[in-house]
Design a protein that fits this description.
This protein folds into 2 domains: 3-73, 60s Ribosomal Protein L30, Chain: A (2-Layer Sandwich), CATH 3.30.1330.30; 82-251, SPOUT methyltransferase, trefoil knot domain (Alpha/beta knot). By secondary structure, it is α/β, with parallel strands linked by helices. It has helices at 7-16, 36-45, 54-60, 89-93, 111-124, 141-146, 162-171, 209-213, 232-251, and strands spanning 3-5, 21-27, 48-52, 69-73, 82-83, 86-87, 101-106, 128-132, 156-159, 175-179, 196-201, 217-219.
């Protein structure tokens, strides 16, 4: 991912300063007042803004909804700690809080779903998100745009084997809870007041068998309509904010 598009994603990238931005391209004729915050953030970060014909931005982003704003990022592949928006798994695991909240995504394939999940994770204060290296959506411009810039603030790591990661989490006394339909335990009945890793399955197949078998518990979201499940990004938000509700209730 060597560019970011959209006003909010670019602004958040400037604020986070986690990835070097070489320059920002603005469509000719863009409203200066609408871009005031962006211009100020770019000036503080020492990033140059250049004007381009809108058609050039369309071509660069393959006609995506760039809102007249595209940031060109530096190549991060040489960084041992962060590559294309990712961090090393150990950097997340070795800096966990006393009662961490992690999210494991088992094969999310739609980049729009991934972006929406990351936006929810950022809003819920999730400590880290883990995604598989293979057969799953990765970070790209669509994910960055859909997340409204949340990719710049959430710690995201890719792993080769989720089962091995789950084993390591258990060694660290972190409960691993999957969310899937058809179980007797409702998510509202489960006590989430413990170090926790939440596992969400893919859009079509759900949680894979081996991953499911290694979870400490499986909870469901009760459905009352004709459909038997929610979109995975919606389901993630429902459960994450129930976790926050329980933890805040315990503290009050």
């Amino acid at each position: 991912m060597n560019h970011i598009y959209g006003l909010s994603p670019v602004l958040e990238a400037l604020k986070a300063r986690r990835r070097p931005i070489q320059k920002i391209l603005i469509a000719a004729g863009a409203n200066p007042s609408r871009l005031k915050d962006l211009a100020e953030a770019a000036e503080r970060a020492g990033v140059k803004i250049e004007t381009r014909d809108r058609r050039a931005l369309d071509e660069l982003t393959r006609n995506a909804n760039h809102q007249g704003v595209v940031a060109i990022t530096a190549d991060t592949r040489t960084s041992p700690k962060r590559s294309a928006g990712y961090v090393e798994a150990d950097s997340i695991l070795n800096s966990l809080s006393e009662c961490p909240l992690l999210v494991l995504l088992d094969g999310i394939e739609d980049p729009h779903n991934l972006g929406a999940i990351l936006r929810t994770c950022e809003g819920a204060g999730v400590d880290g998100v883990f995604i598989p290296e293979h057969r799953a959506a990765g970070l790209n411009e669509t994910v960055a745009k859909t997340s409204a810039g949340a990719v710049e603030h959430v710690q995201i790591a890719r792993v080769t084997n989720l089962v091995r990661l789950i084993e390591e989490l258990k060694e660290r006394n972190i409960w691993v809870v999957g969310v899937e339909g058809g179980t007797e335990t409702s998510y509202t009945q489960f006590n989430f007041n413990a170090p926790l890793a939440l596992v969400m399955g893919s859009e079509g197949k759900g949680i894979r068998r081996l991953v499911r078998e290694n979870c400490d518990a499986i909870v469901s979201i009760p459905m009352h309509g004709q459909l038997n499940s929610l979109n995975v990004s919606v389901a993630t938000g429902v459960v994450l904010f129930e976790i926050l509700r329980q933890r805040q209730t315990k503290l009050s």
